Fold this protein.
Amino acid sequence: MRPSTALHTARRDPRLLCAAAALLLAALCAASLAVGKYSLTLGGLLEGDGLQTQVFWMLRVPRTVLGAAGGFCLGVTGFVYQTVFRNPLASPDVIGVSSGASAGAAAGILFFPGAVGTGMCAFAGALAAVAAALALAALDRTGRNGTIVLAGIAVHALAQTVLMLLKLTADPERELASIEYWIMGSLSGVRIPALGIELALCAVCLGALFLLHRQLLLLSLDEGEARMLGVAVGRLRLIVLLTATLAVSAVISLTGLIGFVGLLAPHAARLLAGDNRRGTMALSGLLGGVLLCGADILARSLTAVELPVSIFTSLLGAPFLLYLVGKGGRRS
Amino acid sequence: MSFFTVDRLSAGYGGAPVLRELSLSVEEGEITGLLGVNGCGKTTLIRAVCGQMPHRGTCILNGQRLEGLPPRALARRCAYLPQRGSIVLDLSVLDVVLMGCNPWLGLLEQPDEKMREHARQALRRVGLAGREHDNYLALSEGQKQLCLLARTIVSGTQLLLLDEPEGGLDVVHRGRILRLLRRWVRQTGGRAVLAALHDPALALNGCDRLVLLDKTGASEVLTPSRDPLSVMEAALSRLYGPVELVRCPTRAGGTRLVMLKEEREEEWEWDR
């Protein structure tokens, strides 16, 4: 991963960076709770104003939690994908997660209208796509990394075709618009029960990934080298990818596709910390949370209509990434 | 029975066999060098022993067949030093060396202080003392190779397989690696090294035994310390074309083997 090699001299304490990122995230969460179409006052909330309390607990809190936790999840899994595929551009899309989820969501919008139905279908679509990609890759007994990527591209193409067919049959006024809107991603309309279930799933998966951190680094080696260090490469990679995918699917089934967080957060974390320790993985998650929360605040406060959150993750993220790369380049 | 034996091993790439029924043995406490021109199957043999290539025949280490062992069990017996490491992430030198402990750790376990101390000691031995917290990717090619050597030493296996370890190394480090391994193998006991080598001079002076691999798949064994010069010269000439072998006295009072390759002018000219 070339961009980060430049910073080897600037090794900072990841704990300090994590603390700073956590503070920033907390501040953004506070802002996210306060900002919105319906203005809340601290006094009103404390007095127990009925409408204010309801808006706070039913809309703002789920949304903020989803922004922070979802962003964290996308950041950490991005780190995992990039490490396992030894590719700085790797993301869940590589093995077909996003396209599977989109096709699933489209099917949900057409056949099981309603937020829950769409979410479940998106989740199922993502998992089906990844299962198909990994099963295809398993046909190649040598278990090379490249095979998984190839299988992912094939599945991605298939899922795109299914999505196109579903769009063709969709009613252009309502359903097609919903599909497009889902694909652009948004944190609105999250309900507490679904959020709770998905976040619990994420927590379990992320916990497992953090525990497996040492193995992740071993998976970034050549197949043969890793094997001779006692790593059951094929099996371990399968477990890690499935775990990461489960977490990503859980998030995007609630939010729709969110671009750039999983790509940017790990890079930013590596450039800041200059290594790949567990702390850097956590930093990657915190930065993901910061990015998604910040983007969501902008998405719902800049204009009267709510805008897709992906616009802002890219708008905020791309300059920041360029800044970090430029800074790293000068230092070396 | 020898410490490590390869019995009638055949392997190749896509139908074209590179190794045909090759047998060889490696004794405990010795460094055995594999010599041969490019494409004779040195790397293929090392990869076959590591279980990275499908092959016929068997490899037996200390009475245990290596074929079919799960990766963890295999890694506890054999360590492998590749031609070039494949690390692409920013990792500290110490973390790279600690990867060698992986076969002895549970899936979720972290290396303990004893292993860390062991790793630091290995780094001192290979001459990278004080570099523990440097970025592995910022090291020179030679230092990277020394760091990976420390990683293989830390894994504490019975058999060490080296695949042209001298590739990226300068003349200072080349000799150092083999001297270091010789000491390690003799002093710790119950170990042996099998190294594919490019440089015949290094092999002649650094190895206890040499296996010469012919392009036709035949092999010959030399013991540089005992075999007469004429026998070795003949064997090496069959491998590399006409060569001259001399025992050269050194200032320190010992002798070293030197191989001179006879260069012939070829009978053609570039078109103008």
In short: Confidence is low (pLDDT under 50) at residues 1-10 of chain A. DSSP finds 15 helices and no strands in chain A. The radius of gyration of chain A is 20 Å.
